């Protein structure tokens, strides 16, 4: 990813965005953290978004079983997570002044997969 970042900075891109996860914390040796550290070292405008779970992931990860079997398959049982919508990231992209920081993005409430299935059923029939 470093060559890509170097290229866009060289081409005068003023603002970069990195999407990682809420589980990314200081000292966690994953690529996203190294990229964030590199962005900081360049002194370039950036925002790091750390969502708990994007609602649109259901379209990628679960779409086939939702459409084909009318179910969401998960090993999380009754576990609940905060699910956010992509539109909450808009200000990080559109604000004139760079945020130059990380944002943990969460939803308004904790939802289980059963809760999400109920929302889909209410909206889609």
UniProtKB/TrEMBL annotation:
InterPro entries: Ergot_Alk_Oxidoreductase, NAD(P)-bd_dom_sf. It comes from the Eukaryota. PANTHER family: PRESTALK A DIFFERENTIATION PROTEIN A, PTHR43162. This is NmrA-like domain-containing protein. It comes from Armillaria solidipes.
């Amino acid at each position: 990813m470093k060559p890509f970042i170097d290229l866009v900075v060289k081409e005068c891109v003023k603002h970069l965005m990195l999407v990682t996860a809420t589980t990314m914390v200081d000292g966690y040796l994953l690529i996203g953290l190294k990229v964030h550290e590199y962005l900081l070292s360049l002194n370039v405008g950036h925002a790091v978004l750390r969502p708990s779970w994007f609602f649109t992931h259901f379209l990628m990860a679960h779409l086939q079983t939702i459409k084909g079997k009318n179910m969401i398959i998960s090993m999380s049982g009754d576990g609940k997570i905060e699910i956010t919508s992509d539109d909450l990231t808009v200000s990080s992209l559109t604000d004139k002044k760079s945020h130059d920081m990380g944002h943990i993005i969460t939803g308004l409430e904790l939802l289980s997969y059963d809760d999400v299935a109920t929302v889909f059923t209410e909206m889609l029939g």
